[in-house]
Amino acid sequence: MTDKFDICVLGLGYIGLPTASIFATKGKSVLGVDVQPHVVETIKQGRIHIQEPDLDVLVRAAVQSGNLKAAAKPSSAETFIIAVPTPFHETENGREPDLRYVESAARSIAEVIEPGALVILESTSPVGTTEKVRDWLIDELAGKYSSADFHFAHCPERILPGQMLKELVSNDRISGGLTSEASARAKRLYEVFCSAEIYVTDARTAELAKLTENSFRDVNIAFANELSIICDELGIDVWELIQLANRHPRVNILRPGPGVGGHCIAVDPWFIVSAAPNKARLIRTAREVNDSKPNYILEMVRQKAARFRDPVIACLGLTFKADVDDMRESPALHIVESIVDQKLGKVLVAEPHTRQLPSSLSATATLLVAEEAVRAADIVLLLVDHKPFKSISKRLLEQRVVIDTRGCWA
Ligand SMILES: NC(=O)c1ccc[n+]([C@@H]2O[C@H](COP(=O)([O-])OP(=O)(O)OC[C@H]3O[C@@H](n4cnc5c(N)ncnc54)[C@H](O)[C@@H]3O)[C@@H](O)[C@H]2O)c1
After folding, report:
1. What domains does the chain contain, in order, with CATH numbers?
2. Which of 385, 399, 393 is nearest to 316 (CA)?
3. Choosing a second label site near 102 at 20 to 30 A (CA), which of 127, 157, 224, 290?
4. Residue of the CA atom closest to atom 11 of ligand 1
5. Residue 152 reports pLDDT greater than 70
């Protein structure tokens, strides 16, 4: 392998690791960089630190081929791909994007970047961030090179956890450059593994496109969540209602749930709200509706628990969605923590995607397999519709108070 890599990927998480690995298995020399030493060490050994179907096989193949290396610091490369977190933080003006990881990644390549390089921002970002990446890099270079020496593009990622490797290849993509040459170069690069369409646009449109996709989802989920609350008030079965309404040829209502979690749908709409606070009224309201749903469920549990002297509550699922191990921004986790904090009863947890409870629950709740937890419970609270939960016997459930927030047994 030459000293200069084809690609240097900054951030080896859910997005960066599959991306780095798939490029490597397609023959590109790739350096994966992460600031967490345990991530770098794990990948060097051809192993993975996150759960995603078949990712272990892909990473092992990429490392064994010699095409994927891992390091704590970037090296010279033709292309740099930034795939670091973009959370929000609370400020007195509301929720603002926290771009410090992107800034730090952009600045970290200044030491090794050479003229002609392409810098791609894959992290989901507020409008204007690709320009900021350029400005941070040029600032860090302190006059050594100018922005005309490099190419910059935003190529957002839209893969779904649980199906990442399939969607990485089959999803359409967007390549939005600060120049048309940058868009075209990024498009050519992703064509190495992407078999779908790659649409070319400018960076700002690409940035807003990704935020728009997740805001669209959020607004539609908020509609379903609001419906579920209205149905509770009116004594109507929301699952039957939605099934019937969806028989209309142009209606497709999503399923309600205990809230919206993860680091995308629950976060990205805020980037639009913070950029246009007086215009993004529907998007903000949808966020508020979805953010209020966990407390609504909690209140339901409190009312049911009040009927028992020493209630035992089986909480099924902690992750932010079904069939993944990711608990970031998980409404299910938040609800279970609140049940414990508010001492609503003895808490049993079933979460097939973890071997140990998160530290916030390890001293106060017990991890069991689902059937055992249900058998021991007065109240069964279904928070995530993981596949194994679907087969829990109806007879077992009939004898208990059931709160099925996902319509798993509807
Ligand atoms: N996970 C998803 O499903 C998904 C889907 C689409 C888009 N995205 C977006 O992709 C981006 C990355 O998300 P993720 O889920 O992969 O995050 P992640 O937390 O799984 O991984 C990010 C990694 O970046 C590392 N990192 C932080 N700062 C760094 C730096 N300066 N240099 C090198 N490494 C650094 C972290 O240690 C971490 O391992 C975010 O903007 C996210 O919104 C995520």
Report:
1. 5-196 (3.40.50.720), 213-404 (3.40.50.720)
2. 385
3. 290
4. 123
5. yes
